[in-house]
């Protein structure tokens, strides 16, 4: 073909010329047939010659790899000298040296290259043991260079190779968390006690760690999350029952076969002031005399606390109270003494308690022995009472009471009367009840004043107190009105004018108030005379009928009591010329009156 013509010849001179660039790799040898025509002869003579041309190779092709970048995986536990990969570069040059490939290796990072490449056949092998946990991957630059004689004419190509070192489960988990943990005893359920951490440098499941409690958790006090390693409380802790725990923890990876490690974790339960001090006795009893000097030893109390350290150190105090200042307790040893002279009647019982943060109480029943240092005390400074004068003999009119704060005979009270009561009253020496001893009469004595003595029964220097009692006798309507004059004689002139007072009656009633207020009335109504109810004045209403006039008027005097009492009087009225002689109808009057008849009965 015309395109394949690489040579031209000068038909006259026979010079051979290149008409096209030669390519050794396309055609390394040419055999040319040269036709020679001799025109000197006639006819011309033809002759043929063969020309053999060898094309010499020039290094005009670079070695080349099929890929620019390769990724190769190799397990980390392979032995030294293991074939990793075979590189194969091509070179288009024809001659031996121009196409002979020489391989070389460079590592992108610093450090010792764990791989080795054979310079002729391109095999990549391990030169040192591999460890993925130290070097996960290596970036290599692999170069392929031809071997042209003239080194300046040598050509090369390179590619990047990433060697991934594949993991093998060759590492056991390793604990990095502390083997010691502390937790206070009052934490809630689910409280995080410790975060257990174990590292496994292997990759994937080979480095995935789970956690398990092997021993020390027999009472199920803790629970361990096998994934996170979080150790939490599953039960309430109590330092006073168990002060520490030793848990054997296993960390195991997910490799095949699995590798594991164990660690003993010590958990110290820290004390919290959660125990109440307990007194050795719940009730302490003792006695001390009253009126002793301050500093008198009373008793020593003692308590214990199961807590530890400062939480078990106790401080003793007296509970707040009105008289707490009368005692002092040694805050360290619990000895109780007085700080003032005691008065049994003021305070008998005291309590003590433990430390301010957590406390316990015990009752101290302190009996203060009595001395007769109190007088009987009446409820009032004076008693006043009103009674009816018609009370029967022996009636209870008043209950007197006096208290004595002392104890026993020193506080037992008896009662007596002093001053003259005219024999009208007496008192019960035990109960203090005052009674009448005779019938009372207000009109004779309307008020009694006397004193009551309350004395204790002490056998040594008894003490006493007096109180005044005033008894008012209230009036009862037990007296009739009494006319000051009966009969009443009145002389009037026959020419006495109308509305003139012709006579006056007078009556008295010794009762009091309305019982003693007297009003007057005529028993028989009159047209000639009328009587003024209040004054007792008898008034002439019309002129007298004759000069020899005389009459008898019956006048009633009544008090104003609820059951009025009355009296009757006769008023004789006559003119001066006529004086009527008064005479009884009978010389003897006889009547029968039943016993127990009411006063004022007719």
DSSP summary: helix tally: 1
Regarding quaternary structure, what we see is: single chain
Would you count the extended β strands for me?
47
Specify the structural class.
mainly beta
Number of domains: 6
Roughly how much helix do the residues carry, as a percent range?
under 10%
Overall body shape: rod-shaped
CATH topology of the largest domain: Immunoglobulin-like
What is the CA-atom radius of gyration, in angstroms?
Answer: 74 Å
Subcellular location: Membrane
InterPro entries: Cadherin-like_dom, Cadherin-like_sf, Cadherin_CS
Protein name: Protocadherin-23
Pfam family, one: Cadherin
Provide an overview of this structure.
- The protein has six domains: 7-51, no CATH class; 63-166, Cadherins (Immunoglobulin-like), CATH 2.60.40; 174-270, Immunoglobulin-like (Sandwich); 279-369, Immunoglobulin-like (Sandwich); 377-474, Cadherins (Immunoglobulin-like, Sandwich), CATH 2.60.40; 482-574, Cadherins (Immunoglobulin-like, Sandwich).
- By secondary structure, the chain is mainly β.
- Helix content is 1%, strand content 42%.
- The strands form 16 sheets. Strands 5-11-10-7 form a four-stranded mixed sheet, with no helix packed on it. It has a four-stranded mixed sheet with strand order 13-20-19-16, with no helix packed on it. A four-stranded mixed sheet has the order 22-29-28-25, with no helix packed on it.
- The longest helix has 4 residues, at 96-99.
- It has one helix and 47 strands.
